[in-house]
Amino acid sequence: xxxxxxxxxxxxxxxxxxxxxxxxxxxxxxxxxxxxxxxxxxxxxxxxxxxxxxxxxxxxxxxxxxxxxxxxxxxxxxxxxxxxxxxxxxxxxxxxxxxxxxxxxxxxxxxxxxxxxxxxxxxxxxxxxxxxxxxxxxxxxxxxxxxxxxxxxxxxxxxxxxxxxxxxxxxxxxxxxxxxxxxxxxxxxxxxxxxxxxxxxxxxxxxxxxxxxxxxxxxxxxxxxxxxxxxxxxxxxxxxxxxxxxxxxxxxxxxxxxxxxxxxxxxxxxxxxxxxxxxxxxxxxxxxxxxxxxxxxxxxxxxxxxxxxxxxxxxxxxxxxxxxxxxxxxxxxxxxxxxxxxxxxxxxxxxxxxxxxxxxxxxxxxxxxxxxxxxxxxxxxxxxxxxxxxxxxxxxxxxxxxxxxxxxxxxxxxxxxxxxxxxxxxxxxxxxxxxxxxxxxxxxxxxxxxxxxxxxxxxxxxxxxxxxxxxxxxxxxxxxxxxxxxxxxxxxxxxxxxxxxxxxxxxxxxxxxxxxxxxxxxxxxxxxxxxxxxxxxxxxxxxxxxxxxxxxxxxxxxxxxxxxxxxxxxxxxxxxxxxxxxxxxxxxxxxxxxxxxxxxxxxxxxxxxxxxxxxxxxxxxxxxxxxxxxxxxxxxxxxxxxxxxxxxxxxxxxxxxxxxxxxxxxxxxxxxxxxxxxxxxxxxxxxxxxxxxxxxxxxxxxxxxxxxxxxxxxxxxxxxxxxxxxxxxxxxxxxxxxxxxxxxxxxxxxxxxxxxxxxxxxxxxxxxxxxxxxxxxxxxxxxxxxxxxxxxxxxxxxxxxxxxxxxxxxxxxxxxxxxxxxxxxxxxxxxxxxxxxxxxxxxxxxxxxxxxxxxxxxxxxxxxxxxxxxxxxxxxxxxxxxxxxxxxxxxxxxxxxxxxxxxxxxxxxxxxxxxxxxxxxxxxxxxxxxxxxxxxxxxxxxxxxxxxxxxxxxxxxxxxxxxxxxxxxxxxxxxxxxxxxxxxxxxxxxxxxxxxxxxxxxxxxxxxxxxxxxxxxxx
Length: 1019
Known about the structure:
Helix content: 25-40%
Strand order of the largest sheet: 5-4-6-7-3-8
Number of strands: 38
Strand content: 15-25%
Distance between the termini: 80 Å
Number of helices: 27
């Protein structure tokens, strides 16, 4: 007997699920099992309560395939090994870059945590690439390669199965970052690439995936904090092309466009190839043009909604001979275009790896395989049931009983009652006063009553926070039915003699576009032909006529929101696509839409999170289709966790789609209202308060053989004049016009020349493969500048540019400077900083983020607010910020939140990143040309437990020493604030110590500058 389950959420969204509901022959039993739900190839649905109880109930079946529960052994076996590899957080066997990313994603103290399902998908892909077959782990590729040979003609595909709404796009961003940063770090490592092709099934997803482009203002790398601050610079090297699979279709040559079909056939003759069509190679060049020309490294492909891409086989080979519907034939044809396009990319450009992402990576009906047969190259699975039990998606609720005088549940199996009574094609005459079938009208009114409850809750609890209203979606089989249903719900024009004489209100009050006999300026209900909008092929004439009023209203709204814009240049398709894509999104064109009536199913990738009610008026012959349609309404509205760290359950009420996992007749708990969002960032006009800081990967300890100094007394003069290389050249042939080369016209500053000479000396005299000495660079720059000022003679009409453009002259100059460098012994231990190669210096200028934490506005900081750690803020941090504002020696300060400043340290044999609380810049002393900056740690009750001593020791005696020894990064000190009553005294003492170069800046025996310098100063 299926039990009612009050709260289906058993697990944290951020940890591996460790409990799940048992599913029996008649649905979930209510019994909780310990452990991870096994991956199985079936989709359980709720069993009808009607009929002869216990006798004629519909038991769980895998729809048309005849298959029952079948464990996915590859997924389950691989999942266990990835768990073993993940445990402990070491991630053995991967590159340092990969380990840093994996630990960053798994960090439980992140402000913007990564969902476990997202981590698991990315971890599985990384494990297969870097670890499998090594270090004692199974070589899973040997199980994947035969499947790809059999099903994909050898294309290297790996499928990641993730429930709708669980964040596949975030996973793509994680994998792009992983591949790119590793490729930049190790250009010759053949496992990685920084060229990516993202293929989607339609325009909506293609446009939405712009968040994968690092240059996009709303990119996920920044929004979701997917990359540690010190690695972000490497992302500039990524190259991404995003397209929909339609781009794989071979295009007609310009010369043949508009030529009649018969003429074209005549021109083609008996040739098998069409000379007037684009070749596959030319198509690949067009699709990949944003990734660079031929001869580049192989591409990594991401197939989004990858169940649309497969290599079908003839039905006869599968023993089938059933007739396919037009929709099924179309799906197979689309799959062929997609798959053959990838084959062409592999042939002409090369594919390193294909990552398939889908909630339903199953073969479709007519593919030549059993419908619902999981792609055998699927390697990870976070199913819809897993997502529900982790609270990541809404719970779809369907009717399970009613009092109608028959055995079926009417609104669950709605199509069985009305399907044969609805029009199948366009009607010749306009239908006036259409009356829906009783079962359809009953379903519409019943679901509207449920919607009224959600709407009242929105008005009282969510609208005051500026949240958009709940959304009711209706999925129709064709444009004729959609038009009838749309007008019945939203109202229509009354036309006489081709003139609109009145407006008739709709039958569902909250969704009507006509109120008090007048059309609303902002429609509540919209009509969408999603297939036409997605393909970009244009809207049919009858659809445009049906939606004419709606289109006109949105054109007016667009003009209001975009004054001066030429709305005539926006096509109806573009306008409706914008409305559809922004349903439920604040401040956008579709924000206030309450109802969407859709032809066919709403496009995949439609990510409105405000859907609460779904009505299906079409045939649903498979659970695959059920999940795809229901998936349009499963995205959560609230991601606030409760006191137990779990999400509260949210529900979507579903009629007409025979699909459900967990029945519930309990009242839905209100979603937790979101906390107010505060914008935090660097403020214009506060540039004088900017603080810059170095970004370190680690430290290097050396005992150098020699110290260096410069002696120019016996160094000869270096002349730049007419006895060197000519400044200009005139070229002339025996006959014809000549050419005059005026030479390099750019003027070089002495500092630029000094940098170039210092780099040459460092590379040729100090740096070897095993011994890099970047810390010598500032001193060498100083030496070169002194040599230029004292020993270089530049004749009139000549310039120092000669040393930049003539390599031999530069080499001679470098040799002369090297000859003037004096070397002497000094056996002191020296600690040097290892600056990050991608992004060596950060600053407060780059800070910008949104937070729901408590904040305090600032005056002495370039950043607008101090963000307080802890659930309810942090009083100690607030008190210290107030003290910093008042202290006269403090020139500027910043809270270290989203700043990118961290201190690498080692504890327990592992490298960690320590993020102190504040950076404080002092006013400069007279005569000083460098900044003194204090690192402040507030050690209060809000701090999480950890290796506190290792952090403090490393900060003071390693980080500060290494950075201070650099010589060009300012003077740094470190202090801990351990009690608010001593904040004022402790801060004043630390500032005086920093001014005096006392031990607060690190162990004096490890510092390079002399003792008399360290003892100088005073405020």
